[in-house]
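[job 0412] stage=fold_complex status=start
inputs:
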Amino acid sequence: MTTVAAVPTGPATTRHTPDFRDLLRSERTKFTSLRSTWWCLGVLTVLGIGFNILVPALITSSWNTMGPGTRQDFVRDTLGLVLQPGAQWAQIAACVLGVLFVASEFSTGMIRSTMLATPRRTPVLAAKAAVFAAVLFVLGVLIALPSLLIGSSITAAHASLPLADPTTVRGVLGFGVYLALTGVLALSIGALIRHTAGAVTTVLALQFVLPAAFQAVPGNVGAHIAQALPAAANVMLGSGHNASDVYSPWQGALILLGWTAVLYAAAHLTLRRRNV
Amino acid sequence: MTSSRSTRSAPPAVEARNLTRRYGGRAVVDSLTFQVRPGQVTGFLGPNGAGKSTTMRLLLGLERPDAGQALINGRRYAELSRPLTEVGAMLEAKAFHKGRTARKHLLCLTQSQGLPADRVDEVLALVGLAEAADRRAGGFSLGMAQRLGIAAALLGDPRIVILDEPVNGLDPEGILWIRTLIKRLAAEGRTVLVSSHLMNEMAVTADHLLVIGRGRLLADCSTAEFIERHTDPDVYAATPEVARPALLEEAFMRLTADSVQYAAA
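[job 0412] stage=fold_complex status=done
writing structure:
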């Protein structure tokens, strides 16, 4: 069974059986080799740091016109003030990129190449989620650190934000966890819907429209539901002392984890069952 | 000699056993049973909608059969641990992300198989895309996209090659290139299954034919035998031997016309 020279001889005899690390490498290559990835990550960083600076700056500048109750809220939850605005807007880029990472494979036909290479299918989804979550976690922490440094200096005249405090550390790591889980949630929706525009619309509706809609419901039933949606998990970036919070930071993290786990499981089953 | 498989009696490279696939109650692939042998080009023919592409998708694990089995080296495709080193396939010219360069497209596939990255440059050179390696594949002409698809199919140096309509839409030079490549792959002892509805192309490329109509197997024989059996005997006798491949189209028409009448009766 020799091979004619014109077709290079196969490497089949010398290589190991591929394992999950090979899939991670493959998905990393896919992720980094598209321009849309770098655009989205750039926008994510600008939105994250930008709003984390802008909102504390605006609030500080209007300090003298604010009522005592509002001031009290900001003093009690300065951490939330300097981390939540950026997370709220940066997640848009994370969601779009998460959807694109999966759905673009379906819209371009790449999915057939991927599934021919890895016919067991679901490890591909796991590798994608792992690569994406890792990138977003690291980037999230890298956004949270300068946000805190700048934000604490902006708010220093009115509230202190101890940087070495365990709550602050939780906020920094939480920023990474929040983006990573939200990104995997969007990626799962991309795998479920398979259509870029449809999946982006669905994710943004879940993250922005539904919370606003439920918040508008009178009484605290609507607020409770809104706070149980995945976007409300940004409570995990605060001090936990904000009067309007329904759930604690840890409960918020668990809510997001639950949503992401359920949607990921649904994506896993769908990928296994549906034709590609 | 490279695998333990050759020590026991080798299963057929490609095999369908009562393979059946239904869409909404209608059998698109209907109890197909065939084997594809190594060392020759097997042409997979049938009118549009006969089930050729579905059969290939079943063989490659992209769809699951409703009944029967599709086997590669005796196993279901999904059971292959490094499929690209056993089967190389091109089902569509543009099975890549438009925004990715040819090199990165092949690299991510290479990495998924645990193959060395220098394999990418080897196949790019093999299909003549070395110059275009760092261009985004979305800008490729159809001919270049076909070449990229072939490169992906040959990435793992597979012993089995499955190509769906590889010459569709190609210019004469591209057609000649693919034809030469296909024949060479078979001459190297590989198992080559190529679908097409271009009869003249198959007449000069395929040694063996599998013909299906309405999802059912109509013929499984050598190309020469197929022509002899299904051409008008007078026409066949009057045609010089060197010109007989040109009769494939007529033979095919007669056979598939029969199958339509048969199915409608």
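[job 0412] summary: The CA atoms of residues 77 and 83 of chain B lie 7 Å apart.
[job 0412] exit 0
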